[in-house]
Amino acid sequence: MIHPVRFIRTASDALKTLLYTRWNDYSQVVVLTDKNTSKHCLPHFRNTFVNRDFIHIPLPELTEESKTLRSVENIIAKLMYAHVDRHAAIVALGGGVITDTVGFAASVYKRGLHLYFIPTSLLGMVDAALGGKNGVNFNGIKNQTGTFYFPREVIIDPGYLATLPRREWESGFAEMIKHGLIADYAYFEQLINRLAAGRMTDKLMEHIIRSVEIKMRIIQSDFRESGKRKILNFGHTVGHALEACALQSGIPMRHGYAVALGMAVETALSVEFAGLEKAIARKIVRRLLEVYPVPESMDTAITDCIMEAMKHDKKNTGGEPSFVLLQAPGQPVCNKKIPGSKIREAIKHTLFSV
Ligand SMILES: NC(=O)c1ccc[n+]([C@@H]2O[C@H](COP(=O)([O-])OP(=O)(O)OC[C@H]3O[C@@H](n4cnc5c(N)ncnc54)[C@H](O)[C@@H]3O)[C@@H](O)[C@H]2O)c1
Ligand SMILES: [Zn+2]
Known about the structure:
Layout: E1 5-7, H1 18-22, E2 29-34, H2 35-40, H3 42-48, E3 55-59, H4 69-81, E4 89-94, H5 96-108, E5 114-119, H6 122-128, E6 133-138, E7 141-148, E8 153-156, H7 166-183, H8 185-196, H9 204-220, H10 236-248, H11 255-274, H12 278-291, H13 302-310, E9 323-328, E10 331-336, H14 340-352
Parallel strand pairs: 1-8, 2-3, 2-4, 4-5, 5-8
Antiparallel strand pairs: 6-7, 9-10
Helix pairs in contact: 4-5, 5-6, 6-7, 6-9, 7-8, 7-9, 7-11, 10-11, 10-13, 11-12, 11-14
Zinc ion is lined by residues 127, 175, 236, 255, 259.
């Protein structure tokens, strides 16, 4: 196990966490939150770890737009200002933006402090908090700089989700749907049916556990992403580029939403370049676009930006984008190179029907 994941199902489960049992061994426990998690999640944290003292550092200005090296510096400055020493523990309480940025800062501050992740968004619970990758955006390119650094423990408490806005649920569901497409097609169908029926909370804990299992199994086999872990990037070559272009155009798109549209394009490409059966591809694309429709404000003009942004993707070799495609549902293949004209055509055809 590269880092333990502890699920909180009853109040007493919190007492079994490593964070709780080791609390008094640390010189300080420092909890960092963004604007929303200060308001919505800190009270639940206090109730969970009752009678424990901690230093709270709010980061109200931290969002996807400011997930940059400057925010990492800002966190380091705040840790210094609070006299946080090498024997302290850092707790990142928030979504993927908090765990990525605080994780990065904790990995370099005084050459690395003990780190705990308490993801509070669905996407954080099933994806961003797992696997030890911390990244921030650079020059408008997603997650361009970062570190590999394991938290001591990831604590998953669905109690935090009570205040999560609907669009954030949908964003988290997209990564779970990805887990289905790369590893368990029946799981994909269950999730997409739930989402289409607006019943996202049905069997929620079961689904979170299933997604955590799938992601952890993949990263355990390949921590540094030299091989198998790459399959987790399904939908992300186009998805990350789309997310960056939407951000540049001033209409930010949730990460999961961009990945869902990226999965639609990459599923379509899988027919010609990985041998995916056409009828299955059509069905997957249709179902994805039903629940993640292309925003009305977006048109085919974004294709040029996506093509340009893909040139900077971390997965590239020799400046050429590399794709994870599906040979069959649940059977991904990595490192697929595709001619630019075909990618352009697939984006236009799949997302804009032109
Ligand atoms: N490191 C990794 O392996 C990895 C994997 C996937 C995604 N990511 C990154 O994660 C980020 C996306 O994560 P995210 O979707 O959690 O984004 P996020 O952290 O921006 O959270 C989404 C929104 O929900 C709010 N929020 C979070 N928890 C809440 C709660 N319980 N109640 C009310 N509001 C709450 C946040 O303040 C924010 O406004 C992206 O930057 C992506 O690149 C990293
Ligand atoms: Zn993702």
